[in-house]
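Quick one, tokens below. Sequence please?
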């Protein structure tokens, strides 16, 4: 009887030990799947013009993840920081991640102006595209990306969001990040690397 009790006790301890090992393993490995950037909403479809005067639509990005920012070349407030961060990301993110800078001042930001702006920021034109178009088209893109902006005047500059968006290879928004916040930018890099390494949403 004593031996039977001893075997039962040993078995219970073995089960408990295995359970504890499972908990520890779960803490070590499970968070990766929990931290997968979730799908937030569909990204915008668009047909605009790039810095080379060429037609550029979201179809050019099919199967490619990208990050997007809304800026304008004469902006003196948040845009310099946003574009500087895009330049940094160009060098830090995997080559398959594209970068898109949408101009919210299309009347003044012609392809030629954007071409010079791209050169100033050492943009790799193979993956960093500066887009312009008519006012209604730009407004529609910003609206669909859930980043509204307000037109400026002689006395008031254009107001727009400081956020940078992460879009996956299926044209889905996977994250929005404040370009003025270091913690957000660190998270953007982590999420973009994850998305680039898991095409098609594969885990």
């Amino acid at each position: 009887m004593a031996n039977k009790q001893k075997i039962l006790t040993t078995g219970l301890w073995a089960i408990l030990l295995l359970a504890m090992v499972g908990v520890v393993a779960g803490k070590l490995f499970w968070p990766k799947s929990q931290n997968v950037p979730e799908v937030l909403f569909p990204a915008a479809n668009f047909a605009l013009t790039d810095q080379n005067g060429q037609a550029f639509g979201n179809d050019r990005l099919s199967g490619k993840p990208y990050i997007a920012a809304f800026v304008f070349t004469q902006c003196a407030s948040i845009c310099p920081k946003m574009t500087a961060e895009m330049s940094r990301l160009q060098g830090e993110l995997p080559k398959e991640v594209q970068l898109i800078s949408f101009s919210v001042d299309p009347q003044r930001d012609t392809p030629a102006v954007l071409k010079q702006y791209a050169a100033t920021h050492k943009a790799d034109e193979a993956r960093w595209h500066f887009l312009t178009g008519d006012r209604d088209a730009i407004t529609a893109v910003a609206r669909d990306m859930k980043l509204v902006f307000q037109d400026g005047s002689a006395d008031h500059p254009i107001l727009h969001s400081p956020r940078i968006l992460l879009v996956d290879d299926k044209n889905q928004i996977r994250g929005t990040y404040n370009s003025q916040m270091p913690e957000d930018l660190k998270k953007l890099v982590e999420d973009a690397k994850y998305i680039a390494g898991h095409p098609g949403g594969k885990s």
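Confidence is low (pLDDT under 50) at residues 12-33. The chain has two domains: 2-34, 41-201.
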